[in-house]
C-alpha cells in the first residue's frame, strides 16, 4: 500500500502547534503548492464536518478532494478522510510533547488502487509526493516557530 509516515520536531509546545495542524484553513499557509479548502457541511474542523479541498498532485494541478474530519482530539490527534474513486485516503496528524517542543507525525495512507493508478501512484509518490510532504512539514515548523 502506498503511503508513509513523516515527522518533524517543532520548537514549540503542543498548544502552539495545534492551531496550525487542526485548522484546515491554515494548511494553505504551510503548503509548498497552492491549496484551498471550503466547508460543505458542519462546523469547520469538527468531527463529522465535510469539506472540499483543491490542491496540486502529480499530473493534476487542480485536484479536488471531498473529505470528512474523522477525529479531533485537541493537542493530540487530528484525522481526516479524503474520498477518491479508488477509496478513502487517510491523513492523520499526531502531536507528541518532546521536552519543550512537539513532535508532529503525519501519516498518509492511500487506498488500494486499481488499474493505471495502481501502477503510477507508487513511483510518483516516491519521486514527488514524499518530497512535497517533507517540504510541507518543514514549512509547518517554520510557520509555528516564527509565530509568537
Please name the defining characteristics of this protein.
148 residues; alpha+beta; Alpha-D-Glucose-1,6-Bisphosphate, Chain A, domain 4
Question: Care to describe what's here?
Answer:
- By secondary structure, the protein is an alpha+beta fold.
- It has a single domain, classed as Alpha-D-Glucose-1,6-Bisphosphate, Chain A, domain 4.
- The protein is 27% helix and 43% strand.
- Strands 1-7-6-5-4-3-2 form a seven-stranded antiparallel β-sheet, covered by helices on one side.
- A hairpin with a 3-residue loop joins strand 4 and strand 5.
- The termini are far apart.
- The model has no long low-confidence stretch (mean pLDDT 90).
Low-confidence stretches: none
Class, according to the CATH hierarchy?
Alpha Beta
Biggest beta-sheet profile: 7 strands, antiparallel
Strand content: 35-45%
User: How would you state the average pLDDT, rounded?
Assistant: 90
Strand order in the largest sheet: 1-7-6-5-4-3-2
Count of individual helical segments: 2
Tally of strands: 7
How many domain modules?
A: 1
Rg, Å, rounded: 15 Å
Outline: globular
Percentage of residues assigned to helices: 25-40%
* Distance from first to last alpha carbon: 39 Å
Query: Any idea of the CATH topology?
Result: Alpha-D-Glucose-1,6-Bisphosphate, Chain A, domain 4
- Estimated structural class: alpha+beta
What is the H/E string? EHEEEEEEH
Name given to the CATH homologous superfamily: START domain
CATH architecture: 2-Layer Sandwich
List the helices and strands and how they pair.
Layout: E1 3-10, H1 14-21, E2 35-41, E3 50-57, E4 60-73, E5 77-83, E6 89-98, E7 101-109, H2 115-146
Antiparallel strand pairs: 1-7, 2-3, 3-4, 4-5, 5-6, 6-7
